[in-house]
Amino acid sequence: MVNILRIVALAVCLGTAAQAQEKTLPSMWVGDLLIHAPVLRVTPAGAPVAGGYLAVENTGDTQEVLLSARADISPDVQLHEMVMSGDVMKMRAIDGGITVPAGETVRLMPGGYHLMLMKPSTALVAGETHDVSLEFLNAGSVTLPFTVAPLDVIRDLGKDAHGHGN
Amino acid sequence: MPTAMATSRAYLWVVWAVAIALAIGAGLGGRMFWEGRSDNGALGAAQLGGPFSLVTHTGAPITEADLLGSPSALFFGFTHCPEICPTTIFDINAWLEELGPQADSLKVYFVTIDPERDPPEVLGDYVTAQSDRVTGISGPPDAVRAMADIWRVYYKSQPLDDGDYTMDHTSLIYLLDDEGEYAELIRYGEPAESAVAKLSALLSN
């Protein structure tokens, strides 16, 4: 139910974007995994990097690992984690992928895990979609459309993701 | 000769002892600085800021004298930053919008701590694509380091797998009054109400 609300909320926000092609963000099954709200952050042309976010719900009874990602619009997509050490921001490439324990949901969202798309070949405009491929240890590879959204929309997804309304 | 060697060895030990003592002193100083901040909730004003000489994203020179006459907000980042830097610009845009005309006098500066990859024109493309209120500041690496030092901003490059690198850096937004003096700071992730209240207080002085 929370997931449905989240998707509807995003669809409403995106609906205001003139370029919006899709009115909803479908969750997608990949084996036992349910991928929610795959989004890319609005990024101007020429920006050196862009951020990608999603939630991975593991409904199975086996631990999964998000190993890597690829995208046509970027020559190199890395898995990164941003952490705050006091008031110092630190960003690290993640070695060995992002683990999604059985029965749990792991969220890539601003301020934490994210996909880092190096040297995006195009501006990322709200409402547009770009394909991103995700490689999982057990479920294998899946390509799905990531919708471009502004930060406030992505943040609202994150708030919802913390559940319980904030 | 053995005597000379012994003397030089003793000399080395003295140098090391002094270096260690200095390092401990610096560490204590830093600790007192941070603890002092947690006590009063704001950085001690006396130690922050000072002369600098850099260039804006249009290539114009900028010094501490340009921080006089209107209040300003100052933060440090880099363009190869997918998270905190665009987030900070996005948040500042939203805060200024909420403050409305009251915020017209505020000047906002984004100082790159990665000047090798962020010469003025690159930085300019980056900030102007995200905000019409932010002025980028770049310059020779040594001059940028000196500017960061006077604001006690930490930054350090960290290698990535592909030979590229990212930057660790202090994420604070410094608010300066119209005399260019440190007034307040806004932390990354601080609630919008708090940030807007601090800016409003700065602008109404």
3D structure, described in words:
The complex is a heterodimer of chains A (about 170) and B (about 200). Chain A has about 170 residues and is α+β, with helices and mostly antiparallel strands. Chain A has helices spanning about 1-15, 150-160, and strands at about 30, 35-40, 50-60, 65-70, 75-85, 90-95, 100, 105-110, 115-120, 130-135, 140-150. Chain A is built from two helices and eleven strands, in the order H-E-E-E-E-E-E-E-E-E-E-E-H. Chain A is globular. Chain B has a seven-stranded mixed β-sheet. In chain B, strands 6-7 form a two-stranded antiparallel sheet. In chain B, helix 2 (about 85-100) packs across helix 5. Mean pLDDT of chain B is about 85; it is low at about 30-40. The chains are: A alpha+beta (about 170), B alpha+beta (about 200). The interface of A and B includes residues 82, 85 and 90 of A. Strand 6 (about 90-95) of chain A pairs antiparallel with strand 7 of chain B.
Provide the structure class of chain B.
alpha+beta
Number of helices in the DSSP assignment of chain B: 5
**Which outline of chain A best applies?**
globular
Sheet with the most strands: spatial strand order of chain A: 2-3-9-5-4-10-11
Please give the oligomerization state of what you see.
heterodimer
Please state the structural category of chain A: alpha+beta
State the end-to-end distance of chain A: 15 Å
> How are helices and strands ordered from N to C of chain B?
HEEEHEHEHEEEEH
Strand order of the largest sheet of chain B: 2-1-5-4-3-8-9
What portion of the residues of chain B fall into strands of 2 or more residues? 15-25%
Largest sheet of chain B: 7 strands, mixed
Q: Helicity of chain B, in percent? A: 40-55%
Radius of gyration of chain A: 15 Å
**Would you report the number of β strands of chain B?**
9
Mean pLDDT across residues of chain A: 84
Largest interface: A-B, 33 and 32 residues
Number of strands of chain A: 11
- State the order of secondary-structure elements of chain A, H for helix, E for strand: HEEEEEEEEEEEH
Task: Tell me the major beta sheet of chain A.
Answer: 7 strands, mixed, barrel
